[in-house]
Amino acid sequence: MIQSQGYRGYLSSRPFWGERVPQHVQNLVIRNYCRDNNLRFLLSSVEVVMPNTYMILENLLEQLDDIEGIVCYSMFQLHHEKHLRMKVYSTILSKCKSLHFAVEGLSLSSHPDVVRIDNILCVKNVMSNALGVDALRKGIKVAAATGTMK
Predict the structure, then answer these.
(1) How far is 150 from 148, CA to CA, in rounded Å?
(2) Which residue ranges make up each domain of the chain?
(3) What is the pTM of this model?
(4) Most confident residue range from 2-11, 32-41, 49-58, 74-83
């Protein structure tokens, strides 16, 4: 039987967006977030190690009738693909629940929250494909040396 009236933590056992955080640290951050925001913390669930697998998150979404919501360690644990994130958001909103992101101190419980959080994730996705400072400098030097810079 799932304990009701609380928030289930969601941890990653694999890197997300190039970051790796030990599970015990993730759990501490989630627990502190819940304490600071007066949310009753339930035990955390840990996502499987296989890349691009979100079986545990999907399972938590199926449990929303029995819990108040989910507290993720970070918003960057969510799917990279927008349409898959939107399924998560839609499920949360349709059940009138909330999704929290402990590291960022953000939560999602309305459509404006979806826009705000997904905009941040989209920017992060674009920035991960952007050139770094060294690559930009090298490109400028090459353009200047070849006369292609105007």
Answers:
(1) 6
(2) 7-146
(3) 0.81
(4) 32-41
